[in-house]
């Protein structure tokens, strides 16, 4: 109940903040003055996730508000990015606060509803698989540590995909006709390189935000390698920020190191491609996924494990899964009494 009250407060604050941001954008030109007037909203957003006590709601809202929405407002202050005062308010609200990218449909035909088969069936399958994984955690003490980390990796992918799919459904309710949503993932398990994994397949919305806000400005001034390094460095810092919401523990720099290593490797891949060095997909895919997993086990998961955040997350997941069963039991008991 407390989390529902917190959610209500956060939603009201977000609506008010985005109404103010849209009003500022409609009355000011891009530049320092617009940024100055947007500053109260920019300062407010990182505090809103702290209204939640559960890890899932706190971390998800932090990703939506303290990263994506924040960067979209930075772009709005410069007159670029997906936000514009010309957008209808609810479209502005959805685009600002949800991890979606709007695509104008050229055909006059009605766009596909993301709540139909194209979205529901894959999401249902992933939800079922996630439920199976969560059920396996009761045996976690008997599972090999590296196998357990592999299960955690799959858990992260499935959970993120389901959260973003849910956000897409919510956004679709706020969007007018003629606008569609881009997918958030594109089969990352088929990646043939780190460039392919990070740039085109994994959490596409983050790439879409970091490209205009970090990569392009740095690349135009200092070249492509500098743009890649800067983008991964900023991504690492933002992940450290997100990990703070997740663990409530001081940053360790390990996640930033994870992205720094991947940045250097992406630059090295570009050099290799220019030299004509390419691996066939059957070889490149397992090497890519193996490298992501190995560096993740080394640098990405330790902050979560040390703070025992993984155990808290599993407790919340188990509680959510047991809720329908408990509800059905209560209904059956009530039926017997009546």
Automatic annotation (TrEMBL):
The keyword Transmembrane helix belongs to this UniProt entry's keyword annotation: yes
Source organism phylogeny: Eukaryota, Viridiplantae, Streptophyta, Embryophyta, Tracheophyta
GO CC list: membrane
Protein source organism: Zingiber officinale
Name of the protein described by the UniProt record: Wax synthase domain-containing protein
UniProt pathway annotation: Secondary metabolite biosynthesis
Keyword tags: Acyltransferase, Membrane, Transferase, Transmembrane, Transmembrane helix
Pfam families registered for this protein in UniProt: MBOAT_2
UniProt xrefs under InterPro entries: Wax_synthase, Wax_synthase_dom, Wax_synthase_Magnoliopsida
GO molecular function: O-acyltransferase activity
One record GO biological process: lipid metabolic process
Similarity comment text for this entry: Belongs to the wax synthase family.
The keyword Membrane is assigned to this record: yes
Chain ranges of the Wax synthase domain: 182-259
Superkingdom, natural source: Eukaryota
Membrane-topology descriptor: Multi-pass membrane protein
Membrane-spanning parts: 7-25, 31-48, 60-81, 116-134, 154-175, 252-271, 283-301
């Amino acid at each position: 109940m407390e989390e529902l009250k917190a959610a209500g407060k956060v939603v009201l604050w977000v609506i008010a903040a985005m109404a103010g941001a849209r009003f500022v954008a409609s009355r000011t030109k891009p530049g320092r003055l617009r940024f100055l007037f947007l500053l109260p909203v920019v300062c407010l957003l990182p505090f809103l996730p702290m209204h939640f006590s559960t890890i899932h709601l706190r971390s998800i809202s932090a990703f939506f508000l303290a990263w994506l929405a924040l960067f979209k407002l930075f772009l709005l202050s410069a007159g670029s990015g997906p936000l514009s005062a010309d957008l209808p308010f609810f479209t502005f609200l959805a685009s600002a606060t949800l991890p979606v990218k709007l695509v104008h449909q050229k055909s006059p035909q009605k766009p596909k509803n993301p709540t139909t088969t194209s979205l529901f069936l894959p999401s249902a399958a992933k939800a079922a698989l996630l439920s199976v994984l969560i059920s396996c955690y009761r045996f976690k003490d008997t599972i090999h540590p590296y196998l357990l980390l592999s299960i955690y990796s799959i858990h992260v992918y499935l959970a993120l995909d389901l959260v973003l799919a849910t956000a897409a459904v919510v956004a679709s309710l706020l969007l007018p006709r003629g606008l569609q949503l881009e997918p958030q993932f594109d089969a990352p398990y088929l990646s043939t390189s780190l460039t392919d994994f990070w740039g085109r397949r994994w959490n596409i919305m983050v790439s879409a935000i970091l490209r205009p806000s970090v990569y392009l400005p740095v690349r135009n001034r200092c070249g492509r390698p500098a743009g890649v390094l800067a983008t991964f460095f900023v991504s690492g810092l933002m992940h450290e920020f997100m990990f703070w919401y997740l663990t409530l523990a001081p940053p360790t720099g390990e996640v930033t190191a994870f992205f720094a290593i991947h940045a250097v490797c992406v630059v090295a891949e570009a050099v290799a491609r220019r030299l004509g060095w390419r691996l066939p997909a059957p070889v490149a895919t397992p090497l890519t996924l193996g490298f992501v997993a190995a560096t993740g086990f080394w640098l990405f998961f330790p902050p979560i494990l040390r703070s025992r955040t993984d155990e808290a997350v599993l407790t919340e997941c188990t509680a959510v899964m047991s809720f329908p069963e408990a509800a059905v039991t209560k209904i059956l008991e009530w039926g017997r009494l009546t």
